[in-house]
Amino acid sequence: MVEVGNAALLSEVAGYYSDKLEQHGQSPRGVDWNGEEGQTLRFRELCRVIDASRPFSVTDLGCGYGALHDFLSAEGRAFDYLGVDVSGSMVEAARERLQGRGNARLLQASAPDCVNDYGIASGIFNVRFGRTDAEWQAYVERSLDELDRASRLGFSFNCLTSYSDADRMRPDLYYADPGRLFDLCKRRYSRNVALLHDYGLYEFTMLVRKQP
Ligand SMILES: C[S@@+](CC[C@H](N)C(=O)[O-])C[C@H]1O[C@@H](n2cnc3c(N)ncnc32)[C@H](O)[C@@H]1O
After folding, report:
1. Residue 44 — very low, low, confident or very high, per pLDDT cuts 50/70/90?
2. Tens digit of each residue's pLDDT (9 = 90 or more) over 138-181
3. In 44-132, which ranges are E strands?
4. Contact, 131 vs 9, CB < 8 A?
5. Where are the domains of the chain?
6. Top-level CATH class of 7-209?
7. pTM of the entire predicted model
8. Which residues are near ligand 1 (CB < 6 Å)?
9. For position 3, what pLDDT does the model report?
10. In terms of DSSP bridges, do strands 203-209 and 56-61 run parallel, antiparallel, or are they unpaired?
């Protein structure tokens, strides 16, 4: 399995999400979202990074059971899809769900094994278990380096926001500072970065567009 950093951390992440899938099945709750509306809204914001006027290839890092493939298909997009997830049971579920769709490939890993036009990561930075801010920030940055390395035209990701209401924040979740991550993306990855923090959830989406 291709790994980003800490094996113990990744196995904790995989165990957490495999349990969710076992409890709730192939549904938004099975990947720890509250419902389909929020899951779809996230996809819509993340996919703004894609130039849909031409066929494209996309890596879905933290693909869960492959719901992004359903979203892109429903939109009538022409695409090739690589779903990557650290949880073996998520990858199995996605494989079963997407079987027979010739444009899909799945991989159990924490990093893609090839370069695609775009990389998208929805929900992979939220649950930090007992990790400190510094540990989790380092993990986020390593994962973003991977997304950058594996995307030709751009990538996007979302994070819970540090602007969330204090009384609703949980210690096991990571609330990122959007300004800090915007600065990192501008300095490290591309001059063309958009921060979307206006879609009504306690989170933000970052779009990093690269020059082809
Ligand atoms: C919140 S769920 C979202 C699933 C999917 N993106 C969606 O929106 O339906 C996060 C998924 O990312 C996976 N994941 C978390 N961190 C990961 C990492 N570093 N590499 C690969 N997969 C990861 C988890 O196993 C889980 O299936």
Report:
1. very high
2. 999 999 999 999 999 999 999 999 999 999 999 999 999 999 99
3. 56-61, 79-85, 104-108, 116-121
4. yes
5. 7-209
6. alpha beta
7. 0.96
8. 4, 13-14, 17, 31-32, 39, 61-64, 67, 84-87, 90, 110, 122-124, 143
9. 46
10. unpaired
